[in-house]
C-alpha cells in the first residue's frame, strides 16, 4: 500500500484492516495512495485506456462510519459498475472524515449507484447519504467595477490566472450598459479553477484597484432528459425593469394567440407558462434574442428541480474541512409561493430560483445583501457553507460570509464566522447573516416580522428614512 498513513485503529484491529486492504489491492490491481488529506484508490484502474470518465460520473458518499475504509466501500460500489477512482477524505488520526467521492466509468453507473446506495444501511443502524458530485470548473468573482465590459474582465482574469476558458457577465437590471458587479469565470479543469481560487482569495490580489471576493459558483443543476421533455414553462431573463407582464404576455402570444397561460415577472426576469409544450418550444426558438423594450431577451426552458432529489456536493480542494454543500434549489412553479416584487433576494447566479420569503432567512438576506452592501457599495457578500460531523454523527453546518470591499480593510473580522454550528442549513444561513449584521453594529430589530413586505418595506423597518 503506497501510503504512510495507517488504515485506522491500533493493535489487532489495525493489522486486520491493513491486511484487508492489501487483499483488496491484490484482487483488483488498483493502487492506494495518500495525498493532500485524502486517500486515492485507482484513478485510473490498471486496465484503463482512454480519457477519464465524463462529468457526472462521480457520486458523493456521506455519513460513513469513521473506521470504514476501501475494503468495505469498494466491494459495495462494485455491484453497480466499474470503479474508476475512490477518494476518501482522511484526518490526521488515520480515520476517514465521514465522506468519500466515488467515480464510476460511466454516468449511468453513477446514477444507478446513487439511487441504490442512498439510505443504504452499511452497518447496523448506519445509513449512507449519497448524492451527485459536481466537478466544478467555474468561479464566482464579486466586487468587479460595474463599468467593466466582458472583454476587459476576460483579459484581466487571463492576466492573473491560468486556464481561463470563458467569462460570463450579466448586465445590471437598472442600467444595461453596466454589469452587476460580479462575473463567472470558467476554467479548463477543476484543478485550474481550484488554483485560481486559491490565488484570488481576498487580500491577495486586487482587480483594477478593487478588492474582490471569490468562491465556487453554484453548478448548473442537471435535470434528466425525460423530465425536461415535459417542461412547458420558459425562463426569460435580461428584461428591462419597466417591462410589464402584459408586454411579455403579448410578445409570447404573438406567435399563437392564447398560447400563454400566465406570466410571472420578478425584477428583470420572468417565467412564462404555456398550455402546450410545443408552443413553449416554438416561442423559445423564435423569441430568444429579440429586443423587448430595447433589451435583447434570453429565453430558455425553465428547469424543474425536486428539492429532495438535488442535494449536490461540489468537489473541494483536497479534503480541508469537508466539501461545499450546495443547497439552493430551483422552483419554477411560482403560484404557491410569495414573491418579493421590488428586488431579487437570492444571489444572481441562482437565476432560476423563485423567492420565498416566509422565513427570516430571506429577510435577513435582503437586509445584508441588497440593502446594506449595495447601499454602501461594498459588493455582493459571498456565502460559503461548510459541513462537519458532530459527536453524535449528525451533520452540522456553518456559513462563512465575506464582503469584498471590507475583506482587505478589516482582515481581523473576515470572513465573518459565527461560533455556532447549526443542525439545519437554513438556520446556519440566518445565524451567519445575523452574526455579520451584529458585527457591523447594524440595527436589525423588527426585520423578522417583515416577511410579507417588499424590499422597500424591509428597508424602512431596518433603516427609517432610507
Automatic annotation (TrEMBL):
Cite the SMART domains for this sequence: RRM (SM00360)
Specify the RRM domain's residue ranges: 57-135, 137-219, 232-304
| GO biological process entries | cytidine to uridine editing; mRNA processing
Region described as Disordered: spans on this chain = 24-57
Which keywords label this protein?
Cytoplasm, Endoplasmic reticulum, mRNA processing, Nucleus, Repeat, RNA-binding
Record-linked Gene3D superfamilies:
3.30.160.20, 3.30.70.330
Question: What does the entry list under GO cellular component?
Answer: endoplasmic reticulum; nucleus
Q: Where is the composition biased (Pro residues)?
A: 43-54
Which Pfam families does this UniProt record tie to the protein?
A: DND1_DSRM, RRM_1
The record's PANTHER family line, in alphabetical order, gives: HETEROGENEOUS NUCLEAR RIBONUCLEOPROTEIN
Question: Subunit notes for this chain?
Answer: Part of the apolipoprotein B mRNA editing complex with APOBEC1. Interacts with TNPO2; TNPO2 may be responsible for transport of A1CF into the nucleus. Interacts with SYNCRIP. Interacts with CELF2/CUGBP2. Interacts with RBM47.
- Quote the protein name from its UniProt record: APOBEC1 complementation factor
* Species annotation: Sparus aurata (Gilthead sea bream)
Amino acid at each position: 500500500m503506497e501510503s504512510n498513513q495507517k488504515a485506522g485503529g491500533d493493535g489487532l484491529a489495525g493489522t486486520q484492516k491493513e491486511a484487508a486492504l492489501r487483499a483488496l489491492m491484490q484482487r483488483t490491481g488498483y493502487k492506494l495512495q495518500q495525498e493532500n488529506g485524502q486517500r486515492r484508490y485507482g484513478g485510473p484502474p490498471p486496465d484503463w485506456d482512454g480519457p477519464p470518465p465524463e462529468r457526472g460520473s462521480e457520486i458523493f458518499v456521506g455519513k460513513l462510519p469513521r473506521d470504514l475504509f476501501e475494503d468495505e466501500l469498494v466491494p459495495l460500489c462494485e455491484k453497480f459498475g466499474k470503479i474508476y477512482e475512490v477518494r476518501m477524505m482522511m484526518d490526521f488520526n488515520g480515520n476517514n472524515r465521514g465522506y468519500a467521492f466515488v467515480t464510476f466509468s460511466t454516468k449511468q453507473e453513477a446514477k444507478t449507484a446513487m439511487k441504490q446506495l442512498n439510505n443504504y444501511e452499511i452497518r447496523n443502524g448506519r445509513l449512507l447519504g449519497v448524492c451527485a458530485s459536481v466537478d466544478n470548473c467555474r468561479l464566482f468573482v464579486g466586487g468587479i467595477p460595474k463599468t467593466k465590459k466582458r472583454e476587459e474582465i476576460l483579459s484581466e482574469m487571463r492576466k492573473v490566472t491560468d486556464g481561463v476558458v470563458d467569462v460570463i457577465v450579466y448586465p445590471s437590471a437598472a442600467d444595461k450598459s453596466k454589469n452587476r458587479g460580479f462575473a463567472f469565470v470558467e476554467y479548463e479543469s477543476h484543478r485550474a479553477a481550484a488554483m485560481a481560487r486559491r490565488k484570488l482569495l481576498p487580500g491577495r490580489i486586487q482587480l483594477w484597484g478593487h478588492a474582490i471576493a471569490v468562491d465556487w459558483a453554484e453548478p448548473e443543476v442537471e435535470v434528466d432528459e425525460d423530465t425536461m421533455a415535459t417542461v412547458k414553462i420558459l425562463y426569460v431573463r435580461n428584461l428591462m425593469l419597466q417591462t410589464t407582464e402584459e408586454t411579455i404576455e403579448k410578445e409570447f402570444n404573438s406567435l399563437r394567440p392564447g398560447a400563454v397561460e400566465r406570466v410571472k415577472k420578478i425584477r428583470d426576469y420572468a417565467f412564462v407558462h404555456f398550455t402546450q409544450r410545443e408552443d413553449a418550444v416554438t416561442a423559445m426558438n423564435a423569441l430568444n434574442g429579440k429586443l423587448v423594450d430595447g433589451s435583447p431577451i434570453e429565453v430558455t426552458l425553465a428547469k424543474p428541480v425536486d428539492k429532495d432529489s438535488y442535494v449536490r456536493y461540489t468537489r473541494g480542494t483536497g479534503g480541508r474541512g469537508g466539501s461545499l454543500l450546495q443547497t439552493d434549489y430551483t422552483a419554477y412553479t411560482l403560484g404557491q409561493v410569495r414573491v418579493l416584487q421590488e428586488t431579487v433576494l437570492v444571489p444572481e447566479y441562482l437565476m432560476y430560483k423563485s423567492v420565498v420569503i416566509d422565513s427570516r432567512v430571506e429577510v435577513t438576506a435582503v437586509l445584508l445583501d441588497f440593502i446594506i452592501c449595495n447601499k454602501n457599495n461594498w459588493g455582493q457578500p459571498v456565502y460559503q457553507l461548510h459541513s462537519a460531523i458532530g459527536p453524535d454523527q449528525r451533520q452540522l453546518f456553518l456559513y462563512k460570509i465575506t464582503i469584498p470591499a471590507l475583506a482587505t480593510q478589516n482582515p481581523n473580522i473576515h470572513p465573518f464566522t459565527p461560533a455556532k454550528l447549526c443542525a439545519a442549513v437554513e438556520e446556519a444561513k440566518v445565524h451567519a447573516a445575523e452574526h455579520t449584521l451584529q458585527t457591523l453594529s447594524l440595527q436589525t430589530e423588527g426585520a423578522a416580522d417583515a416577511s410579507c413586505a417588499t424590499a422597500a418595506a424591509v428597508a424602512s423597518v431596518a433603516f427609517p428614512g432610507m
